[in-house]
Amino acid sequence: MSSLSERLESARLAGEPAEGPYAHPRPVQNRVVEEVEPAKVDAFATVKARAIDSLFDSIGTRISDSSLTEEQLQGYVREELTRIVGAEQVLLTGDERQRLIRDIEDDALGLGPLQRLLHDPTVTEIMVNGHERIYVERGGRLIESGLRFGSEQHLRRVIERIVANVGRRIDESSPLVDARLSDGSRVNAVIPPLAVHGSSLTIRKFSETPFQVADLVRFKSMTQPMAELLNACVQARLNIIVSGGTGTGKTTLLNVLSSFIPTDERIVTIEDAIELKLQQDHVVSLESRPPNVEGKGEITIRDLVRNSLRMRPDRIVVGEVRGGESLDMLQAMNTGHDGSLSTVHANAPRDSISRLETLVLMAGMDLPLRAVREQIASAVDLIVQLTRLRDGTRRVTHVTEVLGMEQDTVVLQDIFLFDFAAGTDADGNFRGVPKFTGLRPRFIDKFEEYGIPYSAESFMTAMGGVR
Fold first, then answer.
1. 3-class SS at 274?
2. Rounded-to-integer distance, Cα 136 and Cα 126, Å
3. Which of 94, 195, 267, 312 has its CA 20 to 30 A from that of 221?
4. What is the pLDDT of residue 68?
5. pTM to 2 decimals?
6. CA atoms within 13 A of residue 283's CA, in its CB half-sphere
């Protein structure tokens, strides 16, 4: 197997154009999505409604037949639709007929107008604001898709189909839900009465093939020296927090960092909705569970963190800490579970420390603030800060070491900082990249303990020397 440096170098020399949520936005060509005007959608509405009714009358319960594979069911539905649409007394061109069949098939088996957006590799996020407005994110920019649902009831059916597939529910007594699609894409849905102007649905798409470290280097989200350092930090079992705002790519980076974990270690992942796609074989994935209709049976992230300590893990990876489970995670880091990884919502490394303090206090323990800070300073070794810049790209803007406590303050030291002074080009894209600050990290000494070939001299040389 080639080394990390060889893989990074080959990716750099390949010179492939940057694509994906981390890349610079650029004009999209050959889009999979056909952006249809609302007036054209209305022209097919009556025909579609009749065809859908005829389809369900003809196939009956076969659509729920568990003995049929997905391919067999799709083939059967497509065959029936071709017959039904052919029997309609409506003049349609060949393209219009195929589009009508495809739309009805999406409504019957898929997610309606969202299905083609899910198949479009240029779309990274889908936002539904009521049944008449569907927005998408392409290249870090929001645009209106031109697609829409036939009615609020149509949108609600799609939402219910999504949440039912993962054993969750959404109704007036529980009007908001987090779920996931079969490909791991993250879903959030809110329905009335909380969503005043119609149901809201947000889907953050994940790539079928998870991004590798070489992809992030190619997207200029991080540099090759930074990737080499993070690889060594994970192998040296440093406890790492990935910090960033909403949509900055924390889960993607966490997935990349997890790929550096040796294959002979037992990994336990804990998430609200399963999103991580680890490549190792020895992985146990745990997912929290909401309460049932009677308000019972809830299993929280905190419950799972506590339980994971009894599962003999070498590494614990928590998708995101957002409550009292942060205290249990810090205690795990401080009691022999080195090399743990997690993410937290914060806009800067210093803010992530404050955020962790607040989350620990949410555990309901009456702890003095100094004791909380000492727990954080002792447990966390490294903070990797992600930022979504104005040009739509996601960049690692800080790699910060946690040095310990000085009086009542957690001391931080930046190892890499993003060079905002480089300015922007004519298109408004940032020219800067993360640069080494010239400060030698204290954890370099730990590399020797774990047999990682990364001496202080080689580190300074790889980083370009002290500025």
1. coil
2. 5
3. 267
4. 61
5. 0.75
6. 19
Print burial letters for 61-88: b (CB count within 10 Å at least 16), e (below 16). eeeeeeeeeeeebeeebbebbeebbeee
- 308 burial class (0-12, 13-18, 19+ CB within 10 angstroms)? buried
Q: What is the pLDDT of residues 387-418, one digit of tens each?
A: 999 888 899 999 999 999 998 899 999 999 99
The Cβ-side half-sphere exposure at 367, using a 13 Å CA radius, reads: 19
Q: What is the CATH number of domain 38-204?
A: 3.30.450.380
Alpha-carbon distances of 173 from 153, 193, 294, 370, rounded to whole Å: 18, 10, 11, 41
Judged against a pLDDT cut of 80, whether residue 161 lies above it is answered with yes
Residue 313 has pLDDT above 90, yes or no: yes
Q: Looking at the domain 213-462, which fold is it?
A: Rossmann fold (3.40.50)
Question: pLDDT band at 278, cuts 50/70/90?
Answer: confident
pLDDT of residue 141: 83
Locate 447 and state its tokens.
Answer: 């590399």
For residue 209, what are the CA distances in angstroms to 107, 121, 215? Answer: 26, 11, 11
- Could you tell me the residue ranges of all domains in the chain? 38-204, 213-462
**Is the pLDDT confidence value at 383 over 80?**
yes
CA distance 400 to 414: 4
Residues 6+ apart with CB under 8 A from 391: 24, 25, 140, 424, 427, 428, 429, 430
Residue 426: half-sphere exposure toward Cβ, Cα within 13 Å: 0
Average pLDDT along the chain: 81
Compute the distance between CA of residue 109 and CA of residue 249 in angstroms, rounded to an integer. Answer: 30
65-74, 300-309, 418-427: segment of lowest average pLDDT: 65-74
Matching fold, domains 38-204 and 213-462? no
Could you give the CA distance from residue 281 to residue 458 in angstroms, rounded to a whole number? 32
Q: In what order do the strands lie in the sheet with 267-271?
A: 283-287, 267-271, 315-318, 341-345, 240-244, 382-388, 394-406, 409-418, 434-436
Find the range with the poorest average confidence among 17-31, 44-58, 62-76, 357-371.
17-31
